[in-house]
Amino acid sequence: MALFLAISNRKGGVGKSTISTMLSYAFAVWSNKKVMLIDLDAQSNSSLILLGGEQWIEAQKKSLNVAAYIEDRLYSIEQTKIKEYMIEGVGDVLTDSGAKPSLSLLPGSLNFEDMQDELITFYSRNQTPYQQARNKCAEHFRAAFSFARRQADIVIMDCAPGLSNATHAALKLANHVVVPFRPDAVSAFAVNRISTIIEGQSFDAVQNIAHDERRYTCLANYVRPGGRDTIYVDEIAHDHPMLTTQVPAMPDVADAFDFLLEPMSMDDKFGAATPTLRALHDELAIKLGITA
Ligand SMILES: Nc1ncnc2c1ncn2[C@@H]1O[C@H](COP(=O)(O)OP(=O)(O)OP(=O)(O)O)[C@@H](O)[C@H]1O
Ligand SMILES: [Mg+2]
User: Fold this and answer.
1) Which of the listed residues 17, 39, 194, 252 should we mutate to test ligand 1's pocket, taking the one with most ligand atoms within 8 A of CB?
2) Ligand 1 binding residues, C-beta < 6 A
3) Topology given in CATH for the domain delimited by 3-288
4) pTM (2 decimals)?
5) pLDDT interval class at 172 (50, 70, 90)
6) Domain boundaries, the chain
7) What does the DSSP assignment read for 94-138?
């Protein structure tokens, strides 16, 4: 049975796609796992990171993407297989022995938002009340994503900013959610909000759940030395489980966004950020019971 990991925060630009792709590489290479990334964002950033622009355009032309998969399941559930929409052997890193890691991708699609509207329209037919249609829509997504369990050991879902039906479904399906945040004066609001959705309870009720029993962990990303960052991290850590590893703001993290045609080692891909990624991988592997 695959482990489903969602990377989510309602807030934009906090590093969801960066962390999703970094963890995909780390678990595929260092834990030797079969990893699949599902790109749930119409911006398709993690798809572009793992495929590069040209391959991503090719994938769109062939309808190899999450929107096509979800839409086709609407009209022909029996025949629609997730395997036919995903791409194997993605990314530009190699294992220590020089092999391609087992990393696959269900690419994002620019049509993902339109497709979600279409899904709501479909489930709203016959004057179904809106909330009921939304629930059916989220269930459609959850069931569709759950078929990834046969394709990988670890399924990483890169959520879009905001709280779409697809994100709700991913948060429901996930065994665990990593919530990256940038330490600033407004980050606590977003973390508080998503914690209530993940746990399905009010903020006060969530506070009564022990930190190590919650289904999510926060990750401080883009941490800068000095300044007020520590204060904001401590403020969130008071109310929420927090990973010890922090990802500093550094050019080598930003540069890993680039897809290069010539595959390289993890050290070459992540440069000075490699020890941080290693620490993050090791900490999460222990927390989630992932053994190499
Ligand atoms: N630790 C870091 N150091 C330097 N740059 C970073 C770091 N983390 C993320 N970035 C940069 O910040 C930008 C936003 O990151 P990213 O796209 O991963 O965020 P996101 O949460 O997925 O955004 P969105 O909400 O739009 O999906 C990118 O340009 C990325 O390269
Ligand atoms: Mg993103």
Assistant:
1) 17
2) 12-18, 41, 43, 45, 161, 221-222, 247, 249-250, 253-254, 257
3) Rossmann fold (3.40.50)
4) 0.97
5) very high
6) 3-288
7) --TTSPPP-EEEE---TTHHHHHHHHHHHHTGGG--HHHHHHHHH
